[in-house]
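[recover] target loaded
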């Protein structure tokens, strides 16, 4: 088997299956009563953490490639980014059920238009009223265009330059997610600060390389003679 085939048929499916591990574990723990006394809060927090972890890992791919010269790691970036979005959506769904749906009255029964309308209003109001929810929602919404345009077709349609510019939103989403985490934590802020540091290093590396590139382009550009 060639290295390409090993990556494609062995490593990629293995990474894909491993990324579903947290979901499998949470499902198992939920069904067998192995979560804490507040299982819905556990599910909210764990899916949020995994969304943030996958976002950080996907943002680490390009710096890892540059530092190590391992070009093959780039093949995992899209998948890891999509997992960040996947866990972000799960996180939002669990929050919608645990935090919003659970607090509703059901005058026309649970499965009714009134319930759907009240649920949408309750989520909207929470996004408007609680800043940590506003910023969490922003982080998720920023991931949406990235998930949609992650296909080869969209890269072709947008062109490499525009696609890259759009996908820089991943950093904005990462910063918003870290702020969301920092604002919601009540006492021990060590974990959100750790993620903030990781994001700062990843973003700092990108800014540093972009500046180096701009400087080298400026140096190699032919000098324009001054008009007398
Ligand atoms: C619609 C968007 C979102 C909503 C409504 C939302 C809501 C919440 C809520 C209610 C909690 C639990 C707060 C508590 O226990 O006091 C939470 C925790 C968390 N969320 Fe979000 N979130 C959103 C998006 C995101 C995104 C996109 C990420 C990451 C990329 C994220 C990462 C986290 C993290 C890391 C935690 C804390 C986990 C922990 O304490 O162990 N959230 N979120």
């Amino acid at each position: 088997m060639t290295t390409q085939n090993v990556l494609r048929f062995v490593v990629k499916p293995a990474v894909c299956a491993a990324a579903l591990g947290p979901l499998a574990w949470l499902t198992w723990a939920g069904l067998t009563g192995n979560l804490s006394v507040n299982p819905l809060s556990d599910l909210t927090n764990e899916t949020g953490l995994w969304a943030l972890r996958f976002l950080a890992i996907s943002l680490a791919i390009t710096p890892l490639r540059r530092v190590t010269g391992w070009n093959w790691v780039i093949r995992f970036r899209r998948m890891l980014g999509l997992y960040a979005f996947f866990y972000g959506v799960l996180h939002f769904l669990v929050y919608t059920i645990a935090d919003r749906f659970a607090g509703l009255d059901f005058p026309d029964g649970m499965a009714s238009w009134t319930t759907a309308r009240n649920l949408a209003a309750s989520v909207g109001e929470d996004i408007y009223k609680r800043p940590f929810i506003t910023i969490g929602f922003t982080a998720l919404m920023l991931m949406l265009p990235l998930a949609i345009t992650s296909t080869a077709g969209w890269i072709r349609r947008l062109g490499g330059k525009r696609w890259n510019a759009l996908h820089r939103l991943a950093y904005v989403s990462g910063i918003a997610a870290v702020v969301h985490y920092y604002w919601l934590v009540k006492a021990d802020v060590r974990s959100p600060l750790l993620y903030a540091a990781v994001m700062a290093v990843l973003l700092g590396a990108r800014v540093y390389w972009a500046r180096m590139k701009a400087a080298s382009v400026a140096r190699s550009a032919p000098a324009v003679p001054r008009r007398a």
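[recover] notes: The pocket of protoporphyrin IX containing FE is lined by residues 41, 44-45, 48-49, 51-52, 55, 88, 91-92, 95, 99, 133, 136-137, 139-140, 177, 180-181, 184 (CB under 6 Å).
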